[in-house]
Request: fold
Amino acid sequence: NTAARAAVRQGIDRGFEMLGIYGSFEGLMSGKVKQLAWEDVEGWGFDGGAELGTLRPIPRVEEYYAIGRALEEQRIDALIVIGGYNAYLSINQMRQETSRYPAFNIPMICIPASIDNNLPGSELSIGADSALNNAVWALDRIRESAAASRRCFVADAMGRHCGYLSLMSGIAAGAELVYLDEFPYDLQDLASDVKMMRDSFRDGRRLCLVLHNEEAGGRYDREFIASVFAQESQGMFDVRHSALGHLQQGGEPSPFDRILATRLVRAAIEELSEQFAQNRSEPLGVGLSAEGIESFPLLQMQQKVDPQVRRPLSQWWLPLIDIISVVSRDEWDIEVRPLPITDL
Reply:
C-alpha cells in the first residue's frame, strides 16, 4: 500500500496519468483498471494489506494475447509492478515475447515487495522489516509464557527456502538454535543439539528457543525436530512447537518499510521519466544495495538467483548465522578483570 500510494502521488507530480490495476494480471485482462487521483490513495501508506489486491499465479502463455490487448485498450505506456518472485518472473517472461506481442515493449519496473526477502538486486524487500517486527513480537510473548517452566519451544518462521526471517528474528529474540534451508542439517546435528540442551537444562536453563525456516530440512521439519527433542529430553524439559503463521504478514507497515517503499518508488518514477525522454523501453528491477537505491536489467534475473529454491545466489545476511552460537552459550571464555586505579 505504501508503495502504491507513493507511486500514484509521485507519478502525478511528474505529470503522469496513474492507473491502478486491481487483481494483478487477471484484473488487467478483465478490465479492472481505474485512474487513481491524489485523494484516492489517502491513508494507503499506513495500512497493511493491498488495496489493489494481489494475485500470485504467473500468466500462462495462452493469456499473453489478452494481456497485450488490455495494455493497448487501456493505453498503458508503462508498468510499475510491486510484488514478489512471481511478479519478477512474469515480467521477465513477458518481455522475452515482445517479438510476438509488441504491446509488451514498454518500460516495466519491478519493485521488490516480499516478506521472504528473497528477491534479486535488493538487500531488503518491502514488507520484510514489518514481518520481522511481528515475528519478534510473537517470540517475545512465547519467551514470557515459557520462562516459568523448563521448556524448549520450536517455532516456524515464514520465508519458504529463504531463511532471512528465521535468522533475524532468532537473533533479535535470543534464540539458542536456528535451522535454515541455506545450511542443511541431519540427524547427527539434531543429536548434537539435543545433547547441548540436556546439558544446558541440567545446569539450570529454563528456556530454549528454537527457530526453524518453514521449508528447511525436508522431512526434518518443525514437528519432527520437536518430536526428536521431546523423545531425547530424558525428562529434563518439555517441548512445544508452533508456526508463527500469517500474523507475520499483518499489521501496520513499519516506519522503515514505509520509507523504503517511498525511496524505491522514487527511483522507479525517475527511471520511467528517463526512459520516456530517451524513447527507451527497458525492463528493470530496483532495489536497496550497499551503494543505495540501484536498478538492474530484469533480463539478468536468472544470473542472480537459484531458480530451484527461489532465492538470490548472494545473501548478505548469511554470515550472521555465527552470532547464534556465540550469544546463546551458557559459559563465556572471556577473562574479565578490573582496571588498575591508575587507569581510571
